[in-house]
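It is worth pausing here to work through a concrete case rather than discussing structure prediction in the abstract. The textbook approach is simple: state the sequence, then state the predicted structure, then interpret. We follow exactly that order.
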Amino acid sequence: MTETNKTLDPVFEEHLKDLLYQLADDDFLFSFRGSEWLGLAPHIEEDIAFSSISQDTMGHATMYYELLEKLENRKSDELAHLRPSHERKNSILVERINGEGFYKDTPKYDWAYAVVRNYFYTQAKKVKIDSLSKSSYEPLAEIARKVNMELYYHLLHWRTWFVQLLSSTEEAKNRMLEAMKKVEVDLGDLFSYGSKAEKIVEFKLIEDEETLKERWTQELEKVCQSLNISVPEIPKNYSLNGRNGEHTQDIDSALATLSEVYRIDTKTAW
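Step two, the predicted structure:
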């Protein structure tokens, strides 16, 4: 099915938009949490690299929002900044705070948590992008192919940090293992498509959740086995599903900061 915007079946369009919001909101929040590390990374080279990755990721979110702009007949900036938290489709993992404190008040962020979250999320994103490159909706497939070129380097970056810290001192390894436990709890809805999952798969917009989970686990197994650590498990039972608009309080402060400038002057481009 390769319908254009002008000929989209209403049911197809409904489920396409739901998936696009999931992809856009994931990268939007993930990029923001990454941007909060500006000036706080372990060294200046990492500060530059992390900032670049966050900027790339915001660019990916922009492409999804711009597709939605055409489908919703509403400005992409509005879709990114003005939708309330209960309309957001991002996973719980990307909205979690980086650690204690606030960016402007000498925060005590957790670098181990950042590395684990970024690696696990980026590996999940890679699995999704590979599937989306064969999506029945060609404009989405085209975006996936563009994103994939940058994603290779993002994944390499975080996998390298993951391996190095788990191969380092005993303290570093212990902190990483603790971070893995924290991240693992929030993996439940990462591969979920929410209440519209059945039709999203039926329309061949992306492959089914279990297939992507399996591929993600297989990739993690290669690395974890080489480090002699347990492979993380995706919880089967979890209380919140961000794909259905269920979120933690962490998302509200993030959205307030993200949309602050735009709300002052809605003509400002983000």
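Step three, interpretation. The longest helix spans residues 44-72. The mean pLDDT is 94.
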